[in-house]
From TrEMBL:
It catalyses: Hydrolysis of proteins in presence of ATP. InterPro entries: Lon_proteolytic, Lon_Prtase, PDZ, PDZ_sf, Ribosomal_Su5_D2-typ_SF, Ribsml_uS5_D2-typ_fold_subgr. GO terms for biological process: protein catabolic process; proteolysis. Residues 1-15 have a biased composition (Polar residues). Residues 1-23 are annotated as: Disordered. It is an enzyme of class 3 (hydrolase). It holds the Pfam family Lon_C. It comes from Luteimicrobium xylanilyticum. The active site is at S263, K308. This is endopeptidase La. The keyword Transmembrane applies. GO terms for molecular function: ATP binding; ATP-dependent peptidase activity; serine-type endopeptidase activity.
Length: 370
């Protein structure tokens, strides 16, 4: 009996003893495939010049972190709270000391909750890991201090401050008039005891008008005439840089490690207000939010709001407080099941939470499309 025959005829089927025939073309294709696999493997592990921003963890300002209350208050009566007031974060990879690989960057391109940015657009060339961490830490420290001032002022406390001038805006009315180390004492003849008091006094000034700033210089009192200018918000500004040293009437300690930047200010303030009043702002609900805070309670814009909304919804938030100045980034990106309220000040945010609590939230401002 004859052996098996291929469709091409006798002798064309290789025998087990000889194996497949390796042609030059087969050998070339094999090497090309091997080289391609090796190149892809190398590219996967090569650092990519991108920053990948994705939803980070959230933290309840009314809860605990690391076994300690996020907000510890002493020197004043505090009240029980229910619900959660969550600050939100962005998980940032690709900064100094935290390089991302090409496969991580490519994966991020295909995720709706992730943003890929050129590294040089986020961090100036040459920025070190230590510099970035120090800047982020200082922003957080400043944010916590301003949040405390804003919250205490909101609930009725006066927060005295020593207002030391550390410089003047070049070519402003204060340039060449004030000196570094001057301590502000009066404004147009009226005593200035708080930073917010100075800001409120400026609210009554028309940009371009002259004002008299009383200062202590080398122990002697001086009255300085300064021509105000128009700030970016349209209000009058002195053109001086001030380093305020606050004398807090209530001790507030914020315990939150490994979180940096200024964007938690609003939620810190709301947490402090909630603990110092019987309002119970969250009232059993999970509310998240973001925004910088100034000592006068102004809420400012932040970065990464789309990722922050996703992280908030993931962790159970059904309401989200967003800075009005971020509304253009919010429209069209609100997660299902979440209601966004646009806020401009701490007081507005507090009143909005009370409206949500009382079931009258239907008329609250939100972010609208064009």
């Amino acid at each position: 009996m004859s052996g098996p025959v291929s469709p091409q005829g006798s002798g064309s089927m290789p025998s087990p003893e000889t194996g497949p025939v390796v042609t030059p073309r087969t050998r070339t294709l094999s090497w090309a495939g091997l080289i391609t696999v090796l190149l892809l493997a190398v590219l996967v592990f090569l650092p990519a010049p991108f920053v990948v921003n994705s939803p980070g963890p959230t933290f309840d300002t009314l809860g605990e972190s690391g076994g300690k209350p996020v907000l510890q208050i002493s020197g004043a009566k505090t009240y029980p709270t229910t619900g959660e007031l969550r600050l939100v974060t962005v998980l940032e990879a690709g900064g100094p000391g935290y390089a991302v690989t090409l496969d991580q960057a490519v994966e991020g391109w295909f995720r709706k909750d992730t943003v890929i940015l050129p590294r040089d657009l986020v961090f100036p060339p040459g920025t070190t890991q230590e510099q970035e961490q120090e800047e982020s830490h200082q922003q957080m420290v400043s944010s916590q201090e301003q949040a405390t001032v804003a919250a205490l002022t909101e609930v009725g406390y006066e927060v005295p401050a020593t207002l030391t001038i550390i410089g003047a805006v070049p070519k402003s009315g204060a340039d060449g008039v004030v000196e570094k180390g001057d301590v502000v004492t009066t404004f147009d003849g009226k005593s200035v005891a708080t930073y917010t008091g100075l800001l409120k006094a400026l609210d009554d000034v028309t940009p371009g008008d002259d004002v008299t700033l009383g200062v202590k210089r080398d122990g002697a009192s001086k009255d300085l005439t300064i021509t105000t200018s128009r700030g970016s918000d349209g209000n009058a500004q002195l053109g001086v840089y001030i380093d305020p040293k606050f004398d807090f009437p209530v001790d507030v300690t914020i315990n939150l490690a490994n979180v940096g930047g200024p964007s938690a200010g609003l939620m810190f303030s709301l947490g402090i207000v909630d603990k110092l009043t019987p309002d119970d702002l969250a009232k059993g609900k999970t509310v998240a939010g973001t925004g910088t805070i100034d000592v006068d309670g102004t809420v400012g814009a932040i970065g990464g709001i789309r990722q922050k909304m996703v992280g908030a919804r993931r962790d159970g938030a059904t309401w989200f407080l967003a800075p009005k100045t971020n509304c253009d980034e919010v429209v069209g990106y609100v997660p299902d099941g979440m209601h966004v309220v646009a806020v401009g000040t701490l007081h507005e945010a507090r009143e909005d939470l009370l409206s949500i609590q009382h079931g009258t939230a239907s008329g609250l401002p939100t972010c609208q499309g064009p």
